[in-house]
Structures are given as C-alpha cells and as structure tokens.
Design goal:
By secondary structure, this protein is of the alpha+beta class. It contains 5 helices and 3 strands; from the N terminus they run H-E-E-H-H-E-H-H. The radius of gyration is 18 Å and the shape is globular.
Length: 140
C-alpha cells in the first residue's frame, strides 16, 4: 500500500487488498458497530485517516453487500449520475436494486471497458437475462 491518496484517486484501478503479506505487513482491525460490547480488542493500532474519499461511491446491493467504487468507473451508469457528479468532500452512498453477484459482473465489465477491453469481454449466454437486472428499463 505505497500509493498516496491523490494517486489512488487518479488511478482507474487500485486494489490495495491484492498483494503479498510479509513480516513488515501491518493489519488493522476494528470492532464493527453494533456488536456485543463484551468483545475487546487489545493492543490495537488505530489506522491514520484514509484521506479523501470523494472519488468513490459506496454502493450497497439489495442483498446488503457493500462496494467502494471509483466514480470514474461509474460514468457510463446513467442511474448513478447524481452520485458520480457529487462534489462533496466524502464518498456518496447509494443502494441499488441489484444483487451482489450481478453487480460484481457489471463492475467486471466496467473495468474491462476502462482498460479498452470491452469488446473482448465475454458473458455466458445463460447469464444475459440475469445481467439485464443490472440495467434500468427503457425510460425508467
């Protein structure tokens, strides 16, 4: 994780969860809100602020999975125009009526498109109907 916040925002892709664990790797954990107060983390390091997040949209799917997605990838998504154009200092949030699996496939296509590989993106014919759920109806 050696890229500063401004560089992360400018990159089309930055997946800090992909990498190699070494003896110098630091892992930060925190207790999720709403958990039993009997759970205590000892000797936990507090991670410094993550910096700016206004280049992201936090998307929650209908099955309650959460995706931080770069606005840059979502420019083609007309239904998310409001979130993409949001100029606030923090990430905008939206819930979509698409399940996690379908939304993940849509993200894979958007990443392929951003890399100029959309024409090589293949979808199993059996998944086309499922992927249509990720597209708004005409005029809707």
């Amino acid at each position: 994780n050696n890229v500063d916040q401004d560089e992360k925002a400018d990159l089309v892709f930055y997946h800090c969860y992909r990498g190699m664990v070494t003896a110098d790797t630091q892992v930060y954990i925190e207790r999720a809100t709403g958990l039993d107060q009997g759970l205590a983390l000892t000797n936990a390091k507090i991670k410094a602020g993550t910096g700016r997040t206004n280049h992201l949209v936090h998307i929650t799917t209908c099955d309650e999975e959460w995706f931080p997605v770069k606005k840059r990838l979502l420019r083609a998504c007309i239904a998310l125009t409001k979130q993409v154009q949001d100029k606030s200092d923090h990430a905008s949030e939206v819930t979509v009526q698409v399940d996690c699996l379908t939304f993940d496939r849509v993200l894979l296509f958007l990443e392929a498109e951003a890399l100029g590989r959309a024409k090589d993106f293949n979808v199993d014919i059996n998944q086309v109907e499922l992927l249509l759920k990720g597209a708004p109806p005409p005029g809707g």
